Amino acid sequence: MAKAAKSTFRCAECGWTTPKWVGRCAECHAWGTVEEVGAPTSATSAAPARVSAPARPITEINVDTAHAKPTGLDELDRVLGGGIVPGGVMLLAGEPGVGKSTLLLEVAALCAATGPVLYVTGEESTGQVRLRAERLDALSEELYLAAETTVGALASHVDAVGPGLLIVDSVQTMTAPDVAGAPGGVTQVREVAGALIRLAKERGISTVLVGHVTKDGSIAGPRLLEHLVDVVLQFEGDRHSQLRMLRAAKNRYGPTDEIGCFELTDSGIVGLPDPSGLFLTRRAEPVSGTCVTVTVEGRRPLIAEVQALVASSNLPQPRRATSGLDSARVNMVTAVLERRARIHISNADIYVSTVGGVRLGEPSVDLALALAVASSNRDVALPRGLAAIGEVGLAGEVRAVTGVSRRLSEAQRLGFSRAIVPHDSVEPCDGIEVVGVSDLGEALVAALPADQR
């Protein structure tokens, strides 16, 4: 008798294979991603087969159906590059409670003005969604709701409604009955996503899939999911703040360097075309330990304020607490201040944060961070109307950054009268004095009053 073929096991994240099942992938070290894929098959033959459509010259391809259609939410259209493309599949991921369902319900109501929209929820009942829609004033006769958890039932709703936009909240709650595995598992998510993508491509339906995230902020499910969809959006924000930011991690139809800003309120979610004022503290008199910088999120310059507090410590290992800034970057800048600028803060507690819940990860924030720490250590306030832009190196030098002209124009627009920038990035700007510095010592001289340097 012929010997039965042995099954193999493969990691759904990285593709690593093994002859027996293991709980943890030996290649990417992910838990619970190794699945049985059956016996290895021979190489696929290249025999001719029926084609879906004959090949045509590229000049004869119709592009009318490939143009993006605006959603009516300007900040979302900015990130997408103009709107949603018919037949395109978008994955929206974010932490629980950040406002993903609220955002999509607003989009569904706006798009329902031009045609039917189908909103399929697997996490809530239709009554719960209706109550939220009433609160958001997002009711429309062309907005259809359905509570389903199987792909087959969803396809039946698509046949009955014929929507131009399909929203599935969320892909982790949907199941394919013919596939083994629990809902939300690697196998189920892959098969469900594949079926929804085929449905969208065959019928030209714009589709939005809501995805969960893991504890470290990455999208839950197989990595293949991000490769299958056309657009991957990350919806970010602190649940204690009303500010929300939308970023494109992948976009086949537009840029990936744009950012959308929203404000989550009791009556819905509102786009913020000019969010710079949210990241500043309005005060009558300058306070020590604060410095303003101009960061660039995507193509948009944003004014942000960095606050620092240096306090004496009796602990053998002083505290270093950060909020809104990279802790490793903060430790590096404080070490450079200690060694290159002779500011003795190694035995002090240092607390650093941003205003408005914004996260600043750009290196151009280094100079403002250094000036804020120095200002707090000497208990001397920086002059009013001062902004600092520049990256700080380990040798204490202030390095050039990109987009200085846009940053200076934004600072001038909001009333700032003086800016400290790297010496090789000095560009004239009407209405604002630009001071070029080459190292931290020159920056401290330019920023602090003459009697406090």
Overview of this protein structure:
The protein is an alpha/beta fold and 453 residues long. The chain has helices at residues 74-80, 100-111, 126-136, 151-161, 186-203, 224-228, 327-340, 366-378, 404-413, 440-447; strands spanning 8-11, 17-18, 34-38, 89-94, 117-121, 143-147, 165-169, 206-211, 231-236, 243-251, 259-265, 268-271, 290-297, 300-312, 320-323, 348-354, 386-388, 391-392, 398-399, 418-422, 433-437. The protein folds into 3 domains: 8-38, no CATH class; 68-273, Rossmann fold (3-Layer(aba) Sandwich), CATH 3.40.50.300; 278-452, Ribosomal Protein S5, domain 2. The strands form 5 sheets. It has a 9-stranded mixed beta sheet, with helices on both faces. It has a 4-stranded mixed beta sheet with strand order 13-14-16-15. The mean pLDDT is 88.
Number of helices, where a helix is a run of at least 4 consecutive DSSP H or I residues: 10
Dominant shape? globular
CATH architecture annotation of the largest domain: 3-Layer(aba) Sandwich
Helix content: 10-25%
Tell me the structural class: alpha/beta
What is the total tally of β strands?
21
In short:
With 453 residues, the chain is an alpha/beta fold. It has three domains: 8-38, no CATH class; 68-273, Rossmann fold; 278-452, Ribosomal Protein S5, domain 2, CATH 3.30.230. The protein contains ten helices and 21 strands.
